Known about the structure:
- It contains 11 helices and 20 strands.
- It starts with a helix and ends with a strand.
- It has helices at about 5-20, 25-35, 35-55, 235-240, 275-290, 300-310, 315-345, 410, 435-445, 455-465, 475-480; strands at about 110-115, 120, 125-130, 130-135, 140-145, 150-155, 160-165, 170-180, 180-195, 215-225, 225-235, 245-255, 260-265, 355-365, 365-375, 380-385, 390, 420-425, 430-435, 490-495.
- Helix 1 (about 5-20) crosses helix 3, helix 6 crosses helix 7 (about 315-345) and helix 10 packs across helix 11 (about 475-480).
- About 30% of the residues lie in helices and about 25% in strands.
- It is elongated.
- The protein is an alpha+beta fold.
- The strands form 5 sheets. The chain has a 6-stranded antiparallel beta sheet with strand order 10-11-20-19-16-17. Strands 12-13-14-15-18 form a 5-stranded antiparallel beta sheet, covered by helices on one side. A 4-stranded mixed beta sheet has the order 2-9-8-5, with no helix packed on it.
- The longest helix has about 30 residues, at about 315-345.
Amino acid sequence: MDKKALLRKLIIDDTLTQHRIPVHEELVIALYEDAEISQYIDFIINKIKTKTAEKITPQDKVQPILLLLPPARDLATKETSLSEESPLKPGQIPTHSAPMPTEKLIIQRPTAKITLSNAKVGTAFNSTLNIELNTLEIAEIEAIDFPEALGITFDPESRCLVGMPTKSGNFSLIVHWSVNAIRYYNEVLLIINPDPRSLWQINEPPADSLYPKAHIDSKLILEEEIRIAGASRRGRSHEHAGTFRDDDFYIHHDNQSQWNILIVADGAGSARYSREGSRIAINTVSHYLKSQLSVDNEAFKPHLEAIHQWNDNNAINQVGSFFAQLFRNAAQLAINNLKNEAIHINEPVKSFSTTLLATVSLRINDELFAASFWMGDGAIAAYGPAGKVRVLGIPDSGEYAGQTRFLDDSALNDAEFNRRIIIGKWKDISHLILMTDGVSDPVFETDNGLQDPNKWTALIDEISPCLASPENADKALAEWLNFFSAGNHDDRTLVVAW
């Protein structure tokens, strides 16, 4: 072994001994061979050489004396000592390590970093328990103590916490683990979040509130070849706040003219009496549409003929103009009635703000004619055949989430008003659907999603069980509307003709 290597061993051994650093034999050998440590020690040796060379005078060079440091232990063999009968001479290098005091190594507790995922009540939980030691050794998990029945157990084979959490809160788990046959334990925090649905309260509005409205409403029209169901229910946000449902809807079938009328309205959540605004708009528009589409309206008969024939572009354009004026008049009447009610109770008309989506339809053999009016968010669509959808309008989405247009004079006088009316006649339409944004937001998520036939197909598949028993379809839809969707807690209204 050269002098530098010997000196490295001496310094490293002396450091470990003086500072009582417990290390394994393999680690000591690794320290001897560490290139970075060697560089530092070589740097020290060179410094010493330089400094001593500067201080040595000619007379100092007569007989140098070797300063011997305590020798390093040879870890590969048993400790040996130099024979007392053979003292070292100046310049002589020892061939064996001198004995060092035998000290019991102090075993320090490894630092363990234990991680696991958060759980949620009512949701299947499967989380790997990871233990990372600062010594880079592999820890074995012996057992885990749970403070109480949480619905979670430990699977030793997979090293996972598994189960169905039954309660929420912060719980301390005791994790027993071992390394090198020595056992340890750590306390670990397990966070179980509550089921969001359990946080919602159901509160009643004040008994003396103006304009009371039922929390759930449903209606059904079931006649020969005519099936229309509508349902509306108060959203969780209104349940929690103890306020009324703002949505409203209307369905109607005229046995004489065979026209169907389907309307949904969503009162603005920020408007104090929007629940009454949606009801006024529904009642006003439905009454006007019924009168104009009745068999007694002579002015409508030419357009009815064009709808049946549907082969003359000029006549079809006239039909479009008729319905544009029809919906404009209906909207104007609704706005006037909203103003009148606002004056009656001395409130701003904005307190009655509401959206309005209306569709009139007529079955002609295997075809469906429909004319729609769309003011605000929500959705109207004619679906069919399977996998094909025609969205009958454009939602009014604002710059911010939840922002939309409401029925008022500015919207009515907009030069683009007629773009809110769409007419068409199609074959193989299986469903005509209207909904407020309480349904469209969680189902379609974005305006682009409204154009995705796959999302419409998924919706049809989901509500089909509700429609399978037509005599109970409205009640079934009302129950379906209670589905949970994180972040979507608005009133929900759905009307379906199928």
